[in-house]
Specification:
Low-confidence stretches: none
Helix content: 40-55%
Number of helices: 3
Number of strands: 2
Strand order of the largest sheet: 1-2
Mean pLDDT: 92
Length: 63
Amino acid sequence: MLKALSLMLNTLEYSIVAKGVETQQQLDQCAELSLAGVQGFLLAKPMSTEHLEKRLEYLLNTV
């Protein structure tokens, strides 16, 4: 069902972001579906605004 929904939304040019990704298996499934993005504990734990700002600054300066 997810594959059909993903195909339909991609055809309609919607971007799909998966929320609550907690396992490598879920991340792999998202990759197979070619989702626009993912978020969840697997990628990053909740953090304060200050921590997020520092992390983004670091990432922007290393690209």
